[in-house]
């Protein structure tokens, strides 16, 4: 899996997010030509080794990245699968909706609770945009796998069952969740983060939801244990995450690392020019260790998608 941040621009103002459009910060875009070059190299490398490659566009808001359509088509033509995580606003436009239906293998839309809660967090009318997009795409043929991801916090965790029912009715295939993190906006995290009791309640609610709803709710036991530890401010060190073996993260500055929390240890993709270079990525990343590893926050390491 290649998770790739393509832009730092966003069109929403979310108080818990580092890419809130109100913040004064860098607003870089990934170079389209370099994205195409490295993406094609990675797709050809994976095909030659009998491996499936899933490229996942991340932002900011990836639909604001102008080379998105061209690079996506180039990668899919080489056998890569492509996914994207979005706030959904761009899908109000018919052209973008058609692109998503025809060119994405997976689409993750952010929805942080039932409409009233989501709108309070992300802006009036935001939930309706996401739910309308889900309904429209669920009716398309072809269409991507439709996933909703929610950021869990004190504000919305008790409404998780209501959220699950709403996204099921709108046509979602999967529901995933993150706990609110404190690295992006610590001032928001202080007053809104999950408590241990919140995680206990979520864990108790999940079995019944999984039995009764025709919806895959991801997040295995390891993941719930990690959420409980974070809520209790108990560090979870990871000594060996098998860095670079099956997961790569590329930051908007073009550095490839084992996850988004260890980018200071990354390799410039400009230096990765051949299949042999890609063969050597895991060996180059494995010895590196960041302070983040002493309390690993990487969701994929803790089996978010189990």
Kindly describe this structure.
The protein is an alpha/beta fold and 306 residues long. It has 2 domains: 1-86 and 237-306, no CATH class; 105-234, Transcription Regulator spoIIAA (2-Layer Sandwich). Helices cover 37% and strands 14% of the residues. It is built from 11 helices and 10 strands. The chain has a 10-stranded mixed sheet. α1 (32-48) links the parallel β1 (2-5) and β2. α8 (196-212) packs antiparallel against α9. The radius of gyration is 19 Å and the shape is globular. The mean pLDDT is 97.
Q: Give the amount of beta strand, in percent.
A: 5-15%
Alpha plus pi helix count: 11
The proportion of residues forming helix, as a percent range, comes to: 25-40%
Mean pLDDT over the residues: 97
Tell me the span between the first and last alpha carbons: 15 Å
SSE ordering: EHEHEHEHHEHEHHEHEEEHH
Alpha-beta content class: alpha/beta
Number of strands: 10
For the record, the count of structural domains works out to: 2
Q: Sheet with the most strands? A: 10 strands, mixed
What strand order characterises the main sheet?
7-6-5-4-3-2-1-8-9-10
Radius of gyration: 19 Å
Poorly predicted runs are: none
Which descriptor suits the 3D outline?
A: globular
């Amino acid at each position: 899996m290649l998770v790739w941040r393509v832009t730092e621009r966003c069109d929403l103002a979310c108080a818990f997010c580092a890419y809130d459009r109100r913040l004064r910060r860098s607003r870089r875009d990934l170079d389209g030509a370099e994205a195409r070059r490295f993406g094609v190299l990675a797709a050809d490398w994976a095909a030659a080794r009998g491996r499936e490659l899933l490229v996942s566009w991340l932002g900011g808001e990836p639909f604001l990245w102008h080379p998105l359509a061209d690079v996506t088509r180039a990668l899919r033509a080489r056998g890569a699968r492509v996914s994207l995580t979005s706030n959904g606003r761009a899908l109000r436009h018919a052209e973008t909706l058609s692109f998503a239906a025809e060119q994405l293998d997976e689409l993750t839309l952010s929805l942080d609770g039932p409409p009233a809660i989501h709108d309070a967090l992300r802006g009036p009318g935001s939930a309706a945009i996401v739910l309308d997009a889900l309904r429209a795409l669920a009716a398309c043929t072809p269409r991507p796998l439709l996933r909703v991801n929610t950021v869990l916090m004190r504000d919305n965790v008790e409404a998780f069952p209501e959220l699950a029912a709403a996204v099921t009715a709108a046509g979602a295939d999967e529901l995933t969740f993150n706990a609110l993190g404190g690295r992006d906006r610590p001032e928001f995290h202080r007053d809104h983060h999950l408590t241990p009791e919140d995680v206990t309640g979520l864990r108790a609610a999940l079995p019944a939801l999984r039995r009764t709803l025709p919806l895959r709710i991801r997040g295995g036991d390891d993941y719930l244990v990690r959420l409980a530890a974070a809520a209790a401010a108990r560090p979870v060190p990871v000594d060996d995450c098998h860095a670079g073996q099956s997961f790569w993260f590329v930051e908007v500055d073009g550095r490839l690392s084992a996850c988004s929390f260890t980018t200071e240890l990354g390799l410039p993709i400009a230096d990765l020019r051949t299949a042999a270079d890609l063969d050597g990525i895991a060996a180059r990343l494995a010895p590196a260790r960041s302070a983040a590893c002493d309390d690993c926050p990487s969701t994929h390491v803790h089996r978010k998608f189990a």
